[in-house]
Design brief:
The protein has 319 residues and is mainly α. It has 10 helices and 3 strands; from the N terminus they run H-H-H-H-E-H-H-H-H-E-E-H-H. The chain has a 3-stranded antiparallel β-sheet with strand order 1-3-2, with helices on one face. Helix 4 packs across helix 5 and helix 9 runs antiparallel to helix 10.
């Protein structure tokens, strides 16, 4: 029940504040890629010709902070109006706790992870830097919609613990950052991303980004899409012998066979070549430390190769 025996001025104020709050809440919700109203990632929307991700994040954080304050003030003003209408001055106060304000403030780690997720969407053609919103989620795939940043042509992006493929997920992501924020500030931007993900001592930005894709990205993706992932992961097991992502909406009857022959088999050959190279190091006149390092890496790759061979049998059946 609402008491409406008040002046039009009060009713208009209630309506104005309410509509403004709805507008702010929509803007906040539409910054998430799971929203139907999502157009592009906020770090790209709020970069305003700046050349670094740090500055774009600062712009986004400042914008959302202002919106947060406006929403909080509006909610408190509405509380004052209704407390007065119902004569509840002795029962309630108009103040709203920050934790009860229904939009989230900017968060560096969360927003960088969502930026990475958007980049993966662009890699698969779900999104495009040339068009806003959802670009492809079924039907005829049109490569002409991806000019600024090309979508992956075969819908398979490998994730490896080293640079075994020229077009693996890390190299494609680095290219995405280069295209969106420029060559000049590339290393600075990669450092900002790696620091947001929290890197280990002596870990380069590319190593941290690789570790994120290898160990954490898919878990975050499944959580974002509430256990209904749109990117599917081929995963050989705990030794990270083979991992590759595909986009559900571009999956067809030849996808598994393509993953197996064009990526899994190729990676096995690369592992074998790398083991031979390490054996040469172990047989050469290098220091004991170098030999120990080579031996440990060889043992690791042996486990990965065995895992890949076992996974190959599973994939052959599915393919």
């Amino acid at each position: 029940p609402i008491i409406l025996s008040h002046s039009n001025k009060v009713l208009d104020k209630i309506s104005t504040l309410t509509n403004k709050n709805i507008e702010i809440a929509k803007l906040s919700w539409n910054s998430n890629e799971t929203s139907w109203g999502f157009t592009k990632h906020p770090l790209l929307k709020y970069r305003n010709n700046v050349m670094t991700i740090a500055e774009a994040f600062s712009n986004w954080a400042s914008t959302i902070e202002k919106q947060f304050e406006v929403l909080k003030q509006n909610e408190e003003e509405l509380n004052r109006i209704f407390i007065e209408i119902y004569g509840l001055q002795d029962e309630l106060t108009p103040e709203v706790d920050e934790k009860d304000v229904t939009i989230r403030k900017a968060d560096k780690e969360r927003d960088i992870k969502s930026f990475i997720s958007y980049a993966v969407g662009c890699m698969f053609g779900r999104y495009s830097l040339d068009q806003e919103g959802l670009v492809y989620a079924g039907g005829e795939f049109d490569e002409s919609k991806y000019v600024t940043y090309k979508a992956d042509p075969d819908n398979v992006i490998p994730i490896t613990d080293d640079e075994y493929f020229e077009d693996d997920i890390v190299s494609r992501f680095v290219e995405f950052v280069r295209v969106t924020f420029g060559e000049e500030t590339l290393e600075e931007n990669l450092d900002f991303i790696a620091d947001a993900l929290t890197r280990k001592a002596n870990e380069t930005s590319r190593q941290r980004i690789r570790r994120y894709f290898l160990k954490e990205f898919y878990q975050d993706h499944v959580q974002t899409y509430q256990k209904r992932p749109i990117y599917w992961l081929f995963d050989s097991g705990k030794n990270d012998g083979f991992k590759a992502l595909i986009y559900m909406h571009r999956y067809d009857e030849g996808t598994v066979a393509k993953v197996r022959t064009d990526y899994l088999h190729l990676l096995q050959r690369k592992y074998e070549a790398e083991m031979k190279r390490l054996e040469m190091i172990m047989d050469s006149d290098v220091s004991t430390r170098e030999k120990t390092k080579a031996r440990k890496k060889k043992e690791k790759i042996q486990k990965q190769l065995l895992e890949c061979m076992q996974y190959d049998q599973v994939m052959a059946h599915v393919a």
